[in-house]
Write a structure and sequence with these properties.
Layout: H1 3-13, H2 18-34, H3 38-45, H4 49-56, H5 66-75, H6 80-83, H7 96-106
Helix pairs in contact: 3-4
Amino acid sequence: MPRKKFAQQAKRGNREHPLRRILRMNLRNRRVELGVTQLQLGDRVGTTQQYVQQLEDARQDNVPNLYLLHDLAQELGCTAADLLSPKRFEAGVAADDDLRVHRRKVT
């Protein structure tokens, strides 16, 4: 489905774009897994706790730019691709060793 068409349907049906949902869930799950607060993560990447909260909130339509996505991934010990991969960080599933193996396969 073309991007513009999906965006129009999403507005009408109030649906969240699948990639947005994946990013939101992976960001939150990885942050919680590492025991990092929204405030700590925001400080480390040069943004606010409120913005991190908005990124994790399904009711918001915020998407980080590529530079911030890269910084978030670095602070969370993963890659931007990891944050955009479906079910990459299900609650308690991903471990640091698992990430290292995954990165070797990708690169």
